[in-house]
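Researcher: Going back to the complex we discussed earlier. I've cleaned up the inputs and rechecked each line, so this should be the final set. Can you rerun the prediction on the complete assembly and write out the structure?
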Amino acid sequence: MVAERRPRKDATRNRAAVLTAADALFAQCQSPEDVTMADIAAAAGVGKGTLFRAFGDRTGLIRTLYEARLEPIRNAVEEGPPPLGPAAPPIQRVPALLDAVLCFKLDNRHLALALEGAGSDSPYRTEHYERWHTLLRDLLNLIPGLIESDFTAHALLAATRADLVEYLADEKRVPREEMREQLANFTATILGTSARRGVAAED
Amino acid sequence: MVAERRPRKDATRNRAAVLTAADALFAQCQSPEDVTMADIAAAAGVGKGTLFRAFGDRTGLIRTLYEARLEPIRNAVEEGPPPLGPAAPPIQRVPALLDAVLCFKLDNRHLALALEGAGSDSPYRTEHYERWHTLLRDLLNLIPGLIESDFTAHALLAATRADLVEYLADEKRVPREEMREQLANFTATILGTSARRGVAAED
DNA sequence: CGTCGAAGCGGACCACCGGTCCGTATCGTA
DNA sequence: TACGATACGGACCGGTGGTCCGCTTCGACG
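Model: Rerun complete. Updated structure for the full complex:
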């Protein structure tokens, strides 16, 4: 009945400090695992208790960070201009969407890695995966000639898994643009817009 | 110079006991994380030290188990009859291979999950992933009209990731046969052997 | 079969991590 | 200024992977 009580000033300040510190730490370290909660608390200049009260647990913190970073893209997808936005025809929007996801994972490897490899929780049982998947599936459904959009959507998203992206970028030294093009071609093949075989696909 | 000294009898016996016990425990429990090393040692009737001397660390144990289970399939692929074996034409062998991988992951969810989600170590920097990937890539290269076999091979394998498979099977209740067919159709689309669009693809 | 060095054993022990708890400090309001 | 509610922080806890070392067992050799 009563309105939500506004949080205290120091609480919000600390919350922001923690997010900033955590972001920096994750960006610096190789493996997300060697950033401990204590490290983050120390870097933010707060106690560990504060950390857990603000975000619940480790996963909560990481997810908050992740979704903050994701928000611009989410906006661009939900209400931005084509080819990402809703006005774009599916045949263009699907590749644009996957490209956006890929770029996001490239730019935020550490976070994505931390979230997807967060031990116990499957990356699939998260709200934002559900969102991406549903959107993608619905778009695929609008493209004539495609079947099993549900599984296809999963498979396409699987091609942008954070650890795969990290492996290709860091270990195999695949340049960013090359990777984007490979994913684009892969997507095109599935959508039937591929130029392979040298026949059809034009005019 | 000297030949490798053969391990003592009790050592090999214990090693086997540990593998058996670990296999059983992983099969029983939901999440691989709630099988601890101490649990395994206790179930096998040995001390924890034995466990670590035999396998190095947790990942080593799991990998040993995993590869033991994988061996039949590996054999079938390397020297078995078509469509899995080397005699099969690539256009048939690729789908057969992916189907085999999928079935393996379905049958050994717990192990695959334990290995792929083994925290620090990327599932991509393992020897057996390299094997699967190389084989698949080379096969794709033999199929005319396909480009970027390297990335495509990664993407196809990503569609059989253990956590995705587990999610679809356990959470979404997708029946085994349905999943196999979905993957088969997905593969067919990429290989250009798909029947979608109702045109071509026959005769 | 008895001896004896070495390989193997086991479980107490360690470092460390995520997460909790509660006495204390701070905020915001009257 | 006074005071209740809110938030703070770091000592503390349970539990995990991994180590260590005194003791046991193996098996080769005489």
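Model: Worth noting: Residues 57-195 of chain A form a domain with the Tetracycline Repressor; domain 2 fold (CATH 1.10.357).
Researcher: Good, that matches what I expected from the previous run.
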